[in-house]
From TrEMBL:
This is MaoC family dehydratase. Belongs to the enoyl-CoA hydratase/isomerase family. The lineage of its organism: Bacteria, Bacillati, Actinomycetota, Actinomycetes, Kitasatosporales. Residues 14-116 form the MaoC-like domain. InterPro entries: HotDog_dom_sf, MaoC-like_dom, NodN-like.
Length: 152
């Protein structure tokens, strides 16, 4: 279920709150190839299914930064923010990729709001502690902290 917050005051009240999990998203070869084209990273482990089948993971794997980039659309399933004029990504902290995401895997985002502090301009900076989980894996695919700024 999506948590909803209307304005910076309600965002402040979310500090420490577990936001649950997003829906599962399947990672397709088409998505991996599109990301490779966008970034110029065409390493065989990502884009060559035949060669990757004989590699260490038995299939192509998603780029770590592809997995990280999916935090943004998956986060919109966890928290719906209204009553602000602008929200921006402010940065990341402690990002790690503990396990690969083979093609055909399903991933989802879990998140917990850390601190929510006031910043200049009447806004707030919200810290999100997140994990991208892979269905059937004991290890997350990506963990870290995302910082977002929201302004009235």
């Amino acid at each position: 279920m999506t948590t909803k917050a209307d304005g910076v005051a309600e965002l402040k009240a979310l500090a420490g709150r577990d936001l649950g999990s997003s829906d599962w998203l399947e990672i397709t070869q088409e998505r991996i190839d599109t990301f490779a084209d966008a970034t110029g990273d065409h390493q065989w482990i990502h884009v060559n299914p035949e060669e990757a089948a004989a590699g260490p993971f038995g299939a192509t794997i998603a780029h770590g930064y592809l997995t990280l980039s999916l935090v943004i659309p998956l986060f919109t399933e966890l928290l719906e923010i209204g009553g602000v004029s602008m929200s921006v990504n402010y940065g990341l902290g402690k990002v790690r990729f503990p396990s690969p995401v083979p093609v055909g895997s399903r991933i989802r985002l879990t998140g917990k709001v850390g601190s929510v502090v006031e910043v200049s301009g009447g806004g707030v900076q919200m810290e999100l502690d997140f994990a991208v989980e892979r269905d059937g894996s004991d290890k997350p695919a990506c963990v870290g902290q995302a910082l977002y700024r929201h302004y009235p």
